[in-house]
Amino acid sequence: MRTVDVIIPTVGHIYKTSHPFNCFSRLHHFPFPVRVHVVTGGKSWAEAINIGLSQTDGNNDVILMDDDVFINEKTFDNFGQHYDKADIFGFRLLFPDGKIQHAGGVCDGNQVGHLGYKEENDSLTKDPYYVCHATTSLIYIKRYVLDNLKSMATDIPGIQFEDVDFSFRALKEDFKILQLSNEAVHIGSGTKKGMPQFLEKCDIAFAEVKKRHLDDPDFQVKVSKYPLPLLQVVPA
Predict the structure, then answer these.
(1) Which one-letter DSSP state was computed for residue 30?
(2) Going residue by residue through the chain (236 aa), what tens digit of pLDDT does each one get?
């Protein structure tokens, strides 16, 4: 089995009572050998991820994983049987109460969002389906994708949406993103909204991503030909 580099950006110090120590206790659930890179530096998530990427040897596939995501024995169950179907893989993230936080990204041409947000987990298909973006809270990226795209964009003002930008850049290069129903729990996804001016900063970041991608007629044509009708869930 090939080794996979796992990058966990923390953007700060690690304390024994914090999320990472609980996150680390679950890493034995990976079904393949991993090299773990815990990044405490960087002024943003994108910068922290790029620091982690610079620490890899340039040969392995990469998993990006937030320090408040808890994987389990089923998160990568049967992952191998889907490996040849796509270039990037997203995973279903659940709130602690079992409702969906993220089941793939949807796009209507002018807006983006989380598929299934706050819906019951059994409301969506268990079959894999293609999506237009996946969250870097838990994402598997094949090495050749990174060889092409290089890194996360650090020049997006505001906060968030670096993963949407990364996904859209991947689509422009004809890479496919497959969303799996394999589950993990994302306990901190709702806490960021308590950050000062969180929504305002998100709006600034989205405006930049929209200008770079959604306002591009060529990108709209490419997305329109993508396997998934973007506001529906269709089994792959």
Answers:
(1) -
(2) 789 999 998 866 666 556 667 788 899 999 999 999 999 888 888 999 999 999 998 999 999 999 889 999 999 999 999 999 999 999 999 999 999 999 998 876 677 878 888 899 988 888 899 998 999 999 999 999 999 999 999 998 877 889 999 999 999 999 999 999 999 999 865 545 555 677 788 888 888 988 999 899 888 888 777 775 444 433 33
Three-state DSSP at 21 gives helix
DSSP tag of 41: -
Q: Strand locations in 115-173, DSSP E?
A: 129-131, 138-141
Cα separation values, 193 from 20, 52, 70, 103, 160, Å: 20, 25, 20, 20, 11
In sequence order, what are the residues at sequence separation of 6 or more whose Cβ sits closer than 8 angstroms to the Cβ of residue 159?
A: 44, 195, 198, 201, 202, 205
**Of residues 3, 21, 7, the one with CA closest to residue 55:** 7
Length of the chain: 236
Residue 115: Cβ-neighbour burial (10 angstroms; 0-12, 13-18, 19+): buried
- The model's pTM: 0.90
Q: At a CB cut-off of 8 Å and minimum separation 6, what does 226 contact?
A: 130, 132, 171
